């Protein structure tokens, strides 16, 4: 028997087996009234209320519903409600500028836009058929409690469930279409390889707009795990929540764990969660010193993963192997900083060019209305990660050694260096520009612009940074600008970024930047 | 991207990530030379040697390869080698009589039959195009080491991977076709819900011919878990292996755990595996007293599951819930004796008749060359388990209260009561017969025959038992015979088995029998 693998499987099991168990604990301090702490039974009711509301608006199957929000119970609910009714959820990065959000809404063709109260003013001019501010307005004007929603007419595991926009090699973000099957397989393998179970307590330290919080909202529900919403990353606040809720599991970029380590240094008494918490880290490869500190100073188990929005996201996992248990802490940490072993069902290979290719059911269906880009990234039946790497013959572990695409990962956010270059280049005083990632203790990488001024033109570092902040999200602006006489190029005129990056990364033993 | 979910995914990951790790430890004492203790790298080589051997024999894709064997490394290898090359593996119960094995080989149309040396003589007359005794003969005459096998021409997740014969409502066993997708999903959910990981050590206390050892050979390989083969269930031997290999996980019917409990009572020193081993139990619902003893006397964690060969097999899991942790041991054990909560992706409902129905990707594709039986069991798009039960509204847990099909589960073996009735009825002295399961401390259930003699005929209990043992597998023969004047029937002439069973099961608080 074949039945479609859909997101419903996760919520159905939560409602059946954990109806009276704690479900989602909303962020207490936020501009909208928090959703009262709810069971999984209540989560199901609220999901159906959203669906009945969308029915009443006349939003059809296949239509896109964009949600621009910090982490919140409502965003989590919509990640179920929208795809489970055959519609497509478009979670949008709330840190984007209004023009960038407008692009995502327009390119996805969303007929409904739901925004966090905090970004209400910033996106006031964005056009969509229906527009709501999450909170009191959605509760009174959109959601319909107790009304049975129209069921999805023909559930299909290959239907698109979500579109997550990601910065890639081009200036404009592309919409990554993930199917129900993509998300289902990612959820099961993620749960399997992290050994998630009903006794876990999950804290959402990861923004849910990032590849649907790596699929955690789904699989944690399916396993009956209490989910605690965290609206904004703050090291001390994370420690307080770990303590208050008995948190056992979290995901995030290295910047999150750096913030926690900083907070732990000033924490009074024993840091909570020792020998109980396990964290999953991805984004920029973490310095092995950080991994060692997580284990020593926090006593938390560290798992490194590697993936992309295009891969739902998990391709590889790396947890200390039994045979490495006896190694010196530093050596163990170094091994843990590798991307890891492919998840069950993931095939990886390294192309002649050194690029890492992947084949798996977690690989995206395509980029939304970008057939050419889709064909390019899936050329030859393999997904092209854009990252350079190697696979260890002894233990099959992948190491990412070079990011081929011009993406800088700063504080867990992907930034297209080309997008930043375009912005800076639009300044009349700039003749040439190259944007690179340079190491940063707090953010993993930070953005540096190398600028060649136009003849007789003058502009200061501060001016260029301010100029960017007016035009693109703050985190995409460079944090430093260096003026140069020229930018080295190849004979064919290509900028050799690796050469530009080299002096900043020297002695770090790894070429990722 | 869609890639087929196939059994290869499990071995591929084992070979990639655990090439040098312990893979399969064969049974040391057996008639054939044991396969030398091997790594997962070596397992891959041996699997390809089997495949190249089948290539050389000219066994095509889709052809059936029957394996009649006790647990052995070779059987485990064939569970990979045959389906991974697009062929179909038919693991056969080695306890069946020659005629029964002959039926399975004939009905499945197997072109290759591989038999354990121990059953060599018993099945000497079975006809098939190719016939090998597992061990020295297969190593020298069939397997081709170092020869690259022909790859499966078009891997398909919906292709049949295995056919497992099961006794059902009819006298003749039916071949349950499980697809690669069935097995893949069963493997992932089984691993997920039992929290299996690379640090586990798995002991094969369950016969691998039983629904492919519940899929354990696959998922344990995929997770890099050391697998220890046990040829024959023996309580003391199980304890010795648990000690010797640091075993952490086992599966089996209640009879297995009863044997272990018996052995533990006479064990010198501390029983091995306390607070380390977790066991998964299925088959006849276990007495809650047994569960309590497993936890108290062995200190092993107990998980109950429910499923059928037709469901790959796992439908539900039951592990003590956090909120039940504080209950008295007896009450906790009682709750654990329920079938449990559906696995992720499994939908259950109870029909008006009280029968438990299931929908899931673990449900069989069909019965081999039995379109009518297939249509009947999948009527209305739901799999009909044949078992009666109820679902607890509070926590979604299934309880099996009545086995609708005339199946007796004795020592983990399914026995069709109709088959036994047919056999007894063929005795000239028998006018009428009804076969039922009655409670048994050791086997869970044991087989009882109620017999009405033909006029003036005479036959003893011992004679009837001996008569059966000559015709069907020994475990299918009744262990007791009662002579009656009549067998009660309904107005329409149907035997009311539940009425026959009633007096034997009184006071057991559960109607399963």
Topology:
The structure is a homodimer of 513-residue chains.
Chain A: H1 8-17, E1 22-25, E2 38-39, H2 40-57, E3 64-68, H3 73-84, E4 88-92, H4 98-108, E5 112-115, E6 130-133, H5 136-142, E7 160-166, E8 174-179, H6 180-194, E9 201-204, H7 211-214, H8 216-222, E10 226-229, H9 235-245, E11 249-252, H10 254-265, E12 278-281, H11 288-298, E13 301-307, E14 314-318, H12 329-336, E15 341-342, E16 347-350, E17 355-359, E18 366-367, H13 371-377, E19 383-391, E20 398-403, E21 407-410, E22 413-416, H14 417-425, E23 430-440, E24 444-453, H15 461-471, E25 480-483, H16 497-505
Parallel strand pairs in A: 1-10, 3-4, 3-5, 5-6, 9-10, 9-11, 11-12, 12-13, 24-25
Antiparallel strand pairs in A: 1-2, 7-8, 8-18, 13-14, 14-15, 16-17, 17-19, 19-20, 21-22, 23-24
Write a compact overview of the structure shown:
Chains A, B: Pfam families: AMP-binding, AMP-binding_C. The structure is a homodimer of 513-residue chains. The first copy, chain A, is α/β, with parallel strands linked by helices.
């Amino acid at each position: 028997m074949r039945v479609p693998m859909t997101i419903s499987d996760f919520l159905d099991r939560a409602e059946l087996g954990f109806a009276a168990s704690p479900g989602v604990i909303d962020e207490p301090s936020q501009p909208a009234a928090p959703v009262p702490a709810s069971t999984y039974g209540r989560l199901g009711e609220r999901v159906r209320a959203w669906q009945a509301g969308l029915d009443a608006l006349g939003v059809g199957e296949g239509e896109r519903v964009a949600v621009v929000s910090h982490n919140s119970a409502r965003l989590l609910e919509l990640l179920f409600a929208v795809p489970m009714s055959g519609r497509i959820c478009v979670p949008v990065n709330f840190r984007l500028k209004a023009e960038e959000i407008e692009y995502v809404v327009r390119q996805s063709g969303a007929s409904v836009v739901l925004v966090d109260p905090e970004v209400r003013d910033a996106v006031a001019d964005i056009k969509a058929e229906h527009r709501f501010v999450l909170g009191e307005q959605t509760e009174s004007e959109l959601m319909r409690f107790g009304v049975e929603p129209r069921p999805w007419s023909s559930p299909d595991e290959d239907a698109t469930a979500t579109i997550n926009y990601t910065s890639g090699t081009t200036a404009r973000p592309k919409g990554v279409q993930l199917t129900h099957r993509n998300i289902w397989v990612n959820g099961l393998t993620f749960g399997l390889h992290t050994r998630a179970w009903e006794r876990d307590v999950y804290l959402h330290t990861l923004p849910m707009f990032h590849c649907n919080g790596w699929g955690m909202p789904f699989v944690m529900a399916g396993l009956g795990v209490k989910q605690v919403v965290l609206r904004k990353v703050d090291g001390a606040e994370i420690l307080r929540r770990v303590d208050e809720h008995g948190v056992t599991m979290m995901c995030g970029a290295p910047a999150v764990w750096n913030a926690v380590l900083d907070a732990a240094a000033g924490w009074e008494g024993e840091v909570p969660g020792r020998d109980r918490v396990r964290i999953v880290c991805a984004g920029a490869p973490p310095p092995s010193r950080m991994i060692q500190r997580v284990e020593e100073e926090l006593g938390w188990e560290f798992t490194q993963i590697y993936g992309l929005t295009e891969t739902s996201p998990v391709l590889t996992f790396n947890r200390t192997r039994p045979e490495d248990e006896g190694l010196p802490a530093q050596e163990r940490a170094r091994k843990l900083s590798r991307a890891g072993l492919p998840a069950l069902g993931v095939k990886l290979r390294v192309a002649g060019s050194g690029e890492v290719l992947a084949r798996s059911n977690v690989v995206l269906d395509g980029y939304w209305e970008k057939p050419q880009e889709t064909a390019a990234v899936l050329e030859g039946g393999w997904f092209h990660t854009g990252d350079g790497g190697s696979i260890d013959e002894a233990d099959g572990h992948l190491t990412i050694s070079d990011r081929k695409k011009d993406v800088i990962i700063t504080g867990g956010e992907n930034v297209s260096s080309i997008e930043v270059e375009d912005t800076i280049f639009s300044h009349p005083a700039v003749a040439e520009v190259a944007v690179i990632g340079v190491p940063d203790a707090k953010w993993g990488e930070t953005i540096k612009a190398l600028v060649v001024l136009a003849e007789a033109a003058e502009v200061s570092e501060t001016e260029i940074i301010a100029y960017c902040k007016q035009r693109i999200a703050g985190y995409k602006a460079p944090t430093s600008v260096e003026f140069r006489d020229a930018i080295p190029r190849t004979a064919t005129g290509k900028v050799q970024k690796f050469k530009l990056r080299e002096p900043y990364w020297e002695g770090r033993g790894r070429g990722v930047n």
